[in-house]
Amino acid sequence: MLNEFKNKRILITGGTGSIGSVIVKELLKYKPKQIRIYSRDESKQFELDHEIDTNVDINFLIGDIRDKERLNMAMENIDLVFHAAAMKHVSACEKNPFEAVKTNVQGTQNVIDCAFKNNVSKVVGISTDKATDPTSVMGCTKLLAEKLMLASFFYKGDKKTKFCFVRFGNVLGSRGSVIPLFIEQLKNNRPLTITDSEMTRFLMSIPQAVGLVFKATTMMKDREIFVLKMPVVKIGDLAQAIIETYQEINKLGIKSKLKIIGKKNGEKMHERLLTIEESDNALETKEVFIILPNTKLNNKDYQNFQHQTYPGAKKTKQVSYDSLGQKTMTVNEIKKLFKNNIDLNFKL
Fold this sequence. Notes:
Number of strands: 17
Strand order of the largest sheet: 3-2-1-4-5-6-10-15-14-16
Order of helices and strands: HEHEHEHEHHEHEEHEEHEEHEEHEEHEEH
Helix content: 25-40%
Radius of gyration: 20 Å
Largest sheet: 10 strands, mixed
CATH superfamily: NAD(P)-binding Rossmann-like Domain
CATH class: Alpha Beta
Structural class: alpha/beta
């Protein structure tokens, strides 16, 4: 990764978001020449600026990926792009579908066009399990974003830009996610509102997610989707772990109630990160599935990929990767995950 990022100019769209801001902080370890943080919210830029103490050249750029002209200016002389800007909340996308299209679809096409125009070397897109067999507006727009970026190969000509996507599930403590909501409800003595106690979700910490994004960046060749393996939790167990952690940290003996509110529009009971059809053309390592470009490969081709392109990879069995089919974390395992995450504020 030092070779991948050292002395490079790097742009992060959505660079002040939960994932984007940690990408920024982690990149500093690898001595890039310049980091450009591209986002819409000046307040978040102000806050992130005061969290960073570094000699690396960091530029904060106000802009929207919907604005192609501004994005093109931001991408001048850039070597690598992390594309993390998106509308990510299922409910907001359901209520404002065309706004989701403008950001997640048209915005992604702008990233593609500007990357080609500025001869960017690599573009790594951040995707979600909701793009797999989507039932929501958000999932549909993120799936289309994946398709747009990977299909750009067919009209790129002799341009050097390479694209890949990284797909993962819920990220522990990210803005607008259920965990900060549960903690806030506890602090205000309100019941925890859960959709269904048996609902399952993939879950990982922000540092884990970003670390695996970086690994995908070093492994990518062109047009892959990297599906990051991660633990699975039941929403009921997650809520119980939050209650117990909150009680232990604050030395309280309160009894908290759960309020079942049912699924919201567009939500699934269980999530999927890899379909059976995608597994036809996928490899896997200990940490990731690698969905290769949609071309039929023979055994010799797979061996070449395994030994030369993706070290440690092997052909995936024909199987979908669903949260329902995985072993779920226990309440104590979830609590341990909380205690290793400094971004979660359980204290009163």
